[in-house]
Design goal:
This protein is of the alpha/beta class. Helices cover 33% and strands 19% of the residues. It has a five-stranded mixed β-sheet with strand order 3-2-1-4-5, with helices on both faces. The radius of gyration is 19 Å and the shape is elongated.
Length: 189
């Protein structure tokens, strides 16, 4: 038995792009444009849809998402270690192996991540990269689509903090539903 985790990132802007507009014939439509520069929220999430304890964990990172943020999330939130990234506690090994499914985003394939792979392997965590252009195989992708286009359909957040709260509330709703929906599965089996 292994634990299988689907990991991916998604970006959220405080306003949705304007796809179309209406105006009277002969009158130019004026649409206010709000640049998302410096107001983008990146969220990294890990979905464990199967197994004895299905879960969803995430971390919000304003600004650029890089290998340092990915490794910190992987080490602390996914693997559950309290030590600094790359520092394996003496004699520690996960009870069940953990496989983390990733796409081919450049951050996932970075030198820093490759350098940390041996330490992850020592504790029982393996990284599995999906084939190129197959993001539909990552089970967390539908969750991002649901949150972006259904849970937050109208976005006019004035601040990055308001956007973060809205995204975290939507993700918490999904995490709670995942826990409730699978609570009685062991009894049913």
């Amino acid at each position: 038995m292994i634990d299988l985790v689907f990991l991916d990132e998604s970006g959220f802007a405080p306003t949705l792009p304007t796809g179309y507009s209406w105006a009277r014939k002969g009158v130019r439509a004026l649409v206010r444009d709000e640049s998302p520069q410096g107001r983008r929220l990146n969220v990294v999430g890990a979905l464990t849809p199967l197994g004895p304890e299905p879960s969803l964990v995430w971390a919000c990172t304003p600004g650029t998402f890089d290998a340092v943020a990915l490794l910190a999330f992987l080490w602390h939130e996914v693997a559950g270690l309290a030590t600094p990234v790359g520092e394996v506690p003496p004699g520690y090994r996960r009870a069940r192996p953990l496989v983390v499914v990733l796409d081919n985003y450049s951050v996932h394939r970075s030198k820093a991540v490759k350098a940390t792979e041996p330490a992850l392997a020592r504790i029982g965590v393996r990284l599995f990269f999906l084939p190129p252009y197959s993001s539909d195989l990552n089970r967390i992708e539908p969750l991002w689509r649901q949150v972006k286009y259904h849970d937050l359909p109208v976005r006019r957040d004035q601040t990055l903090e308001a956007l973060r709260i809205a995204v975290e509330n939507a993700l918490q709703t999904h995490a709670d539903a995942l826990t409730v929906a699978t609570k009685d599965l062991p009894e049913a089996a």
